Amino acid sequence: MLHGIREGVVALDRSGRVRLLNDEAQRLLGLGTEALGDRWTTRSARDARPTSSPAASPAPTC
């Protein structure tokens, strides 16, 4: 059902791993199904790429 909507949807589990990317999210973020199961971080959201290893939290920006 989520694959038919026009908005990009990324679903994460409680540990921050990607569990679902609909077609529009994949297109907008340049990701494929290989991102499923990877940990999503603040850095990866900015870079539009999830990472499989945890990253240190970036310093807050003003």
Total beta-strand segments? 2
* H/E series: EEHH
On the 0-100 scale, what is the average pLDDT?
Answer: 75
Question: What is the total domain count?
Answer: 1
Main sheet: strands, sense, barrel: 2 strands, antiparallel
Radius of gyration over all CA atoms, rounded:
12 Å
Strand content: 5-15%
Helix content: 10-25%
Instruction: Label the structural class.
Output: alpha+beta
SS summary, helix count: 2
Shape: globular
Query: Strand sequence of the main sheet, in spatial order?
Result: 1-2
Catalogue the unreliable spans: none
Oligomerization: single chain
Between the first and last Cα atoms, what is the distance in angstroms?
39 Å
Which terms summarize this structure?
single chain; 62 residues; 21% helix; alpha+beta
Break the fold down into its secondary structure elements and pairings:
Elements lengths: L9 E3 L5 E4 L1 H7 L12 H6 L15
Antiparallel strand pairs: 1-2
Description:
It is a single chain. This protein has 62 residues and is an alpha+beta fold. It has two helices and two strands. The protein has one domain (2-47). A two-stranded antiparallel ribbon has the order 1-2. Helices cover 21% and strands 11% of the residues.
